[in-house]
UniProtKB/TrEMBL annotation:
Residues 3-70 form the Polymerase/histidinol phosphatase N-terminal domain. SUPFAM superfamilies: PHP domain-like. This is PHP-like protein. It comes from the Bacteria.
Length: 279
């Protein structure tokens, strides 16, 4: 079974519509695909409706990726198998969405101070009805040739401590876990190998996440060396966290693909072990 539990659509910073994402996953022979946009479940119903029209065996799992603040880090928590119609959950996610707009406006003000005008307006058009993210800002700055690529935007303007960085006021990790579980889902620590932190901090992060009631962590995600994979598997086992894996697909490129190289280490309990999956 090919199970990919982390992907984005244009309801946040993914480039594909739910329909395009699903068609691509189907072509890649994915059996289960979780759609996990940043701080929103707005694309889920469209995805489910399209999928049921297609009569394909692939299963779509409703998900979300919630931004949280932990010490000085932005930590992402996936909510898997959430009820995307839960009114309380939708109202809670709306708070995050408002914070996205507030932060975006402030980042734009900071950019204007260094002579780069009206980025908010342009980024908002790119984001459309989706959540506005730093990735949209990055696209605008690259399009305007202010910098040469995405990486350079984060290094010069949008990364922590850089010229146009605005500290986001995300909810705390424990709160995100509660939101997800109240909506019937499982909370999974996203891409723990991606945070720019020492192993000591990483271990502290996982410990606090587990103590706060988190269910699982991604032990397989992109850009991991075999040593890092082993480290993540060991830390997950130590805290009895279930294991998840996902491509974090945003758009077609040469580094990431839906459903590729996602098998979990055999000694870990998969996050889907008590869900009935198709396939
Ligand atoms: P936000 O949630 O608005 O802070 O935006 C974060 C998003 O920007 C992430 O989900 C990534 O898709 C993207 N991103 C963050 N850092 C980088 C980076 N250094 N290079 C490229 N994309 C990045
Ligand atoms: Mn993203
Ligand atoms: Mn993330
Ligand atoms: Mn993601």
């Amino acid at each position: 079974m090919k199970i990919d539990l982390h992907s984005h659509t244009h309801y946040s910073d993914g480039h594909l519509s739910p329909k395009e994402l699903i068609d691509r996953a189907h072509n890649m022979q994915v059996d289960v695909l979780a759609i996990t946009d940043h701080d929103t479940v707005d694309g889920i119903q469209e995805a489910m409706d399209y999928q049921s029209e297609q009569k394909r065996s692939m299963q779509i799992m409703p998900g979300v990726e919630i931004s949280t603040a932990w010490h000085n880090f932005d930590i992402h928590i996936l909510g898997l198998n959430v009820d995307h119609n839960d009114a309380q959950f939708l109202a809670r996610l709306d708070q995050q969405s408002k914070e996205r707009d507030r932060r975006a406006q402030q980042m734009s003000d900071k950019l204007a101070k260094v002579g780069i005008e009206n980025v908010f307006e342009q980024a908002k058009i790119l984001a459309g009805k989706g959540q506005i993210t730093r990735a949209h800002f990055a696209r605008v700055l690259v399009e305007r040739r202010v910098v040469k690529d995405f990486d350079a935007v984060f290094k010069k303007y949008l990364g922590k401590g850089k010229k146009a960085h605005v500290k986001p006021q995300w909810i705390e990790m424990a709160e995100a876990i509660t939101w997800i579980q109240d909506a019937g889902g499982k909370a999974v620590l996203a891409h723990p190998g991606h945070y720019d932190m020492t192993t000591k901090w990483l271990k502290r992060l996982v410990e606090e996440f587990a103590n706060a009631g988190g269910n699982g962590m991604e032990v397989i995600h992109s850009h991991l060396t075999p040593e890092r994979k082993k480290l993540l598997a060991d830390i997950a086992a130590e805290h009895n966290l279930q294991a998840s894996s996902g491509s974090d697909f945003h758009y077609p490129n040469r580094w990431t693909e839906l459903g590729k190289n996602l098998s979990l280490p055999v000694q870990l309990v998969p996050i889907w072990h008590d869900w009935s999956l198709v396939g």
